[in-house]
Design goal:
The protein has 601 residues and is α+β, with helices and mostly antiparallel strands. The chain has a 6-stranded mixed β-sheet, with helices on both faces. Strand 24, helix 13 (464-473) and strand 25 (477-480) form a beta-alpha-beta unit.
């Protein structure tokens, strides 16, 4: 109203310029900068035009340009990094008086088929393995068990070689590692890998020597083999506890639980339950009825229903918490494994989950991480394509086998990608165009059609629209539930792309005794086969003075006046070459056959 009055009276006082402190991030739009400086965006665009730069109001400018503009307009500048949004996300160390005892987190590791899940089954008195395809664990399972000495949280990791990253995650989240070694099989490659993970995580190892009930079981062999990898058990004068167990008969299981309790008492495990929750996403999947679901191991603080949480590039409000028995719980304290529902997307397994105070903060952090991830992905794809072009120019064409992977959980998808990347060689390799969790959707089929990829579904299926689209586009969708089968099939398919090996077999030699010139036919060589045999249609080389002067095929092979298929040593014959007339007496003709041999990876 004041302004209208002044305009009506024709009086306008010059506006007083206010110098502001302008916060400038790494990138900012012109409109946002104008808003922060309380200036007109048109004035900023004019200023940039004077500098020789043409911009629109929604264009993004870098921090240096924004600083130059702000200072020119008479404002102070405060530069902030985009990464500052993550500052103070996870709180500092907890004071000693807030710490309370917590249950130990025990990860069960070892080689595939050595009985890790069976031991857990026996402790929990359930049947986990019966629900696993082929009897092998392909997910990280998190369980809590009530024992006489208190609660223990168990993480069960897969033993198959493809699941390296899952085992590394298990070791990262753990306090104690139970290393399962079969008494009848001894130390195997994944046992050694599990030992290395435990050493890297600097956690104590308890050795469980399983299958002790078998007649061929030899516990001392397992102990001796462990010594070669610097795991010295107590019975051999070391400091690692070892227990002989049988998952089948239940022998030694009470002693194993006692050893775990003893080890955890010595470690004095404590955490502060009265703060914002922090935990590790052990596994994540997209459930058809429930949406994104993350299995989270709470490490400190208490996670409650209704908390706003961030995990990697996903955020959400906790709708429900479900424990390992499938019951809904209201809160989860330290060392408690729960399934968390309510995320806006599927977080990555291995991400840290943090409870924050407001949805705005959670959204800001998640958006920043998504942006960083997109940028990193763009750069890596660009770099890969440039590198590919250069290497393909050097080595000739590199064949790629495009694959699109959908799995039931994040960890399995990761493991499959890693296993397939190991398969290739210099000539052929798998190119994963996309991998994710959840069923095969129509957009997956469209992406596969655009890239020429084959779709692999691991423990998931395609919906009706996706099936129809795949049929229409002629896209192959293959389903698997065991990782061995998937890797073997891809190995065979990729072997088909390898150029066959050409093997040359020497057949025989012939010497030219006379050269005849026949009209309408050209020169014919009268020869004698000196060794082996000569065949029509086989490859031949013409050798003069020990130098190869021509390589080609026989067009004619005659004995007297008859065309023959082959001539053996000691016999005379007439030969003519395809597109070659320079024949001389004394030349040697070498005959050979080229065989194609299929190669495999």
């Amino acid at each position: 109203m004041e302004r209208q009055k002044k305009q009506a009276t024709g009086f306008s006082a010059p506006r007083e310029k206010i110098a502001r402190e302008v916060v400038i991030p790494e990138a900012i739009t012109i409109q946002e900068l104008a808003h922060r400086m309380a200036e007109r965006a048109v004035d900023i665009i004019k200023f940039l035009m004077k500098q020789g730069q043409m911009h629109k109001i929604n264009d993004v400018i870098d921090a240096d340009t924004a600083e130059l503009i702000a200072e020119d307009f008479g404002h102070k500048v405060k530069r902030v990094s985009e990464a500052d949004v993550e500052e103070g996300l996870s709180g500092g160390e907890d004071p000693e008086d807030t710490l309370k005892p917590r249950p130990p987190v025990v990860t069960v590791m070892g080689h595939v088929d050595h009985g890790k899940t069976s031991i857990l089954d026996a402790i929990r008195k359930t049947k986990v393995t019966s629900g696993e395809a082929g009897g092998i664990t392909q997910h990280i399972g998190a369980y809590q068990v009530e024992t006489e000495n208190g609660r223990i949280t168990f993480l069960d990791t897969p033993g198959h070689e493809a699941f390296t990253s899952m085992r590394a995650r298990g070791a990262k989240a753990t306090d104690i590692v139970v290393l399962v070694v079969a008494a009848d099989d001894g130390v195997k490659p994944q046992t050694v890998e599990a030992i290395n993970h435990a050493k890297a995580a600097e956690v104590p190892v308890i050795v469980a020597i399983n299958k002790i009930d078998k007649p061929e079981a030899d516990a001392n062999r397992a102990r001796t083999e462990l010594m070669q990898h610097e795991v010295f058990v107590e019975s051999m004068g070391g400091d690692a506890l070892d227990v002989e167990v049988s998952a089948l008969t239940g022998q030694g299981l009470p002693e194993l639980l006692e050893a775990i309790s003893l080890q955890s008492e010595m470690m004095e495990l404590k955490a502060n339950p009265g703060r914002n929750a922090e935990g590790l996403v052990v596994e994540a999947k997209l459930d058809r009825g429930r949406g994104p679901v993350a299995t989270v191991l709470v490490q400190r603080g208490t996670l409650k229903v209704g908390n706003v949480v961030v995990a990697g590039a996903a955020w959400g409000k906790v709708r429900a918490l479900i424990d390992d028995t499938g019951k809904n719980v209201v809160s989860a304290g330290p060392s408690f494994p729960v399934e968390v529902l309510g995320f806006n997307g599927v977080p990555d397994a291995g991400d840290m989950l943090v409870a924050v105070d407001s949805e705005a903060r959670a959204r800001e952090v998640a958006e920043y991480r998504q942006r960083k991830r997109r940028e990193a992905k763009g750069v890596s794809m660009r770099r890969a394509s440039l590198e590919q072009m250069m290497s393909q120019m050097k080595e000739g064409e590199l064949k790629e086998f495009p694959i699109l992977i959908k799995a039931d959980v994040q960890g399995s998808a990761e493991a499959i990608v890693q296993a397939l990347e190991k398969l290739g060689n210099d000539e052929v390799r798998a190119r994963v165009v996309h991998y994710g969790v959840g069923g095969v959707s129509e957009s997956d089929v469209q992406l596969a059609a655009a890239t020429g990829a084959v779709i692999l579904g691991f423990n998931v299926r395609a919906n009706k629209q996706a099936r129809d689209a795949a049929e229409r586009e002629g896209i192959e969708v293959r389903y698997y539930n065991i990782i061995y089968d998937l890797v073997d099939d891809m190995k065979q398919a990729m072997s088909g792309l390898l150029a066959p090996e050409l093997r040359e077999t020497h057949m025989g030699n012939a010497e030219i005794l006379e050269v005849f010139n026949i009209s309408k036919v050209g020169k014919i060589a009268g020869c004698k086969v000196t060794e082996g045999s000569v065949e029509r249609g086989a490859g031949v080389r013409l050798i003069r003075d020990s130098v190869v002067i021509h390589e080609g095929r026989l067009s004619t092979l005659k004995r007297f006046k008859d065309e023959v298929k082959s001539v053996s040593a000691g016999q005379e014959c007439g030969m003519a070459f395809e597109n070659w007339q320079d024949l001389k007496v004394g030349d040697v003709i070498e005959c050979y056959r080229v065989e194609e041999i299929k190669r495999s990876l």
